[in-house]
Amino acid sequence: MNKLTHIIRSELKSLMRGKWVMGYGLIFLALTDVLLRFGGGGPETLLSLSNVMLLFIPLVGMIYGILYIYQSREFVELLLTQPIARNTLYWGLYLGISIPLMSAFVIGSLLPLIWHGIFVLDVGSTVLVLGLGAVLTLIFVSLGFVLGLAFYDDRIKGFGFTIVIWLFMAILYDGLILFLVFLLGDYPLDKFVIIVSMLNPIDLARIMVMLEFDISALMGYTGAVFNRFFGSSYGVITAAAMLVVWLVIPMWSGLNVFSKKDF
Amino acid sequence: MIEIKNLKKSFGKLEVLKGINLDIPSGQATGIVGPNGAGKTTLIKSLLGLTKPSSGEIYVNGTKLNGNFDYRRDIGYMPQVARYPENMKVNELLTFIRGLRDQDAVFEQDLIDQFNLGPELDKMLRNLSGGNRQKVGATLAMMFDPQILFFDEPTAGLDPRASHRFKQRVQTEKSNGKTIIITSHIMSELEQLVDHVIFVLDGNVRYYGTMDNLLIESDETRLESAIAKLMEHPVEVAI
Across the interface, do B100 and A3 touch by the CB < 8 Å criterion? Predict the structure, then answer.
């Protein structure tokens, strides 16, 4: 445990100095502030923030995770020759880079919400949106880790898959489902749509935002079906449970690949 | 003491190590040589636990390697390529590794003085020259006074003065009874530092013995020509 916190602290310090993470936090700070000043404030701001978050966080998280693996290759190999268990090292590196990224988003978005007084008005929704951003960060940094470890010697392929996975999950997914529904419109498809929504963490997060703000029409077809089928509270619980599954799978597979890998 | 029994390693269909058997006693200084792609790096990585054997067994000081890590308390490793986190200072890196190893860094100051790293300690690692980064690597490898030392192409980026100091240090470690394993393509360097040679070719050990014996058997006066001869006619002088 001591060694784990030792690694996390050292990574944190090194990252904070990089200013990169600070810039990322400042982007969310500026964005939220501008949205609050010009967007009318209140739920609309949180919704706009969610839309940016749902697109932006998965991409940044994955790129960040995979870049870390590629840039720190020799260093990670040196650390692996020290008397330390591989899983301790994995958690140390993973948490050491995902915690600062997560904090940058949460703090950057939270500060304007506090000073414009939105946070006190709508604590529940704010916590939900920021919490979802935090969970998405954890999921996609570990996906980046998995991709970096899987394509350890082939960076082009690693980055290629990262972009394709992001495009697919963040942009194309909802459209593809809509297309399938349009194509197979004569059949009862509710269960199918619910199942496929669960297979994409970004869709899950989108559905949770949608259920929270009760604006199914704005958030795509999958959201509408989800809303109708589950009703609000049950829907949120199911989507949250699925997000936890999504959190565990990439982390676990990353750990698994890291422990078995030949470096 | 390092024992390797029938070590095999394949990456997919590519068989890199084809049944290596070696006994390296404590206190011996050994050079590993062989052409590029012969399996030297894979052999060293297997000993360090970076690569897991497909079959066969490795024992380091009596401990069988099976994913455990405590045996690495006795090992110091200086990698060929020294790249560290950019936004870390040299002394922070030393502190970081000290915290990971939880061992007494008995030779830290000694090595910093010897390699003249004092003025570099407060610099960011990204601002260090390649040679200075190598010196940091050498310091990390030796500062905990481990029983076994691995050096992978150690003097490749060092200037003559640093290279000389490094060799002096290795000689000291050798006279202190350390087990030293060096891979290098610079044969004259090996002549100075080691007295045993392991010649690896196509995933097999083709020669393992004293350097003197190799020179006699190959009828050469220099290690370089003896190794060149071994590469061309591997069977003639094989053990």
Answer: yes
